[in-house]
Amino acid sequence: MDSSLTPSWLLLIVSLPTGGATARMRIWRKLKILGCAALRDGAYLLPAHAGQASQLADLAAETNEEGGQAWLLRVQPQDKDESAAFQALFDRSADYDGWLAELAQARQTLDALNVAELNRLLRRFERSYQALRQIDFFPSETSLRAQTQQRDFANAIESLQSPGEPRAAEGGIARRDPMRHQGRLWATRRHIWVDRVACAWLIQRFIDPSARFLWLENPAECPADALGFDFDGATFTHVGDRVSFEVLLASFGLEENRGLARLAALVHALDVGGAAPPEAAGFEAMLAGARKRWSDDDTLLAEAGAMLDSLYAHFSGGRKA
Length: 321
Description:
Blueprint: E1 9-15, H1 21-34, E2 37-40, E3 43-47, H2 55-65, E4 69-75, H3 80-88, H4 93-107, H5 115-134, H6 141-161, E5 185-189, H7 194-207, E6 212-216, E7 227-228, H8 244-251, H9 258-272, H10 279-293, H11 297-315
Parallel strand pairs: 5-6, 5-7
Antiparallel strand pairs: 1-3, 1-4, 2-3
Helix pairs in contact: 1-2, 4-5, 4-6, 5-6, 7-11, 9-10, 9-11, 10-11
């Protein structure tokens, strides 16, 4: 049998003194967190490609320090049947099914929860989902379903926290003349968050330096003379897979600006998901903190604008906005 066609495995064999119940329990818990499968008492299997495989050597060393013995071996299945039997030990379908059932129950309670409770619930399910993903070494259809449900769950909570989140429109993006958009009134939903904050900053810095902003309680009440952004029916909103910030860049011919293009990747990731640049988590945390400090959107924009100025300078290689 061609060994290159089947995964190799790591086998950890541990033996602890009969009086080492505490150490045995501690090591067993660590093995469970790593996602190991027990072949029998004291023999634990893990795919060699698992990201946490290197930690088995640490557990072997810990076993020896506790007065026990440990052997870490690399094993290769004899044939396809044995390989399939090993892989079946890591089927997480039942774990995902239990998690999905809990998620479905939680979704029924969302309307009765306040913002803090919604955030706690979202964090709890995100932690439990990520813990499952870490030990899901052979993803299946069930894991893909869980991924979709987790994303829908997060979107449902976001919709409750930010009513009016736009749905992507179809079609192209018309090029606009910045000179015809000066000194205008711009409107978006109040309690601004990532995409709306970034759009307002972009408008101020690169499109309409004399812009005035109106923060709408209800997007349906947007004045006829205002340029709306980031809500359904707005002049500038999501188009295809582009968020409103990216649509503004395309509309006003700013896509070639290196600093703005890198900011767009950050905004896109935080707004609708995807590969996030390293700076994304820090910006999101700072914006969340500013949002707690300031309920007034004009003040929030001023503070967030300073953060975006710094990010733009960083992404542009030191050039100022």
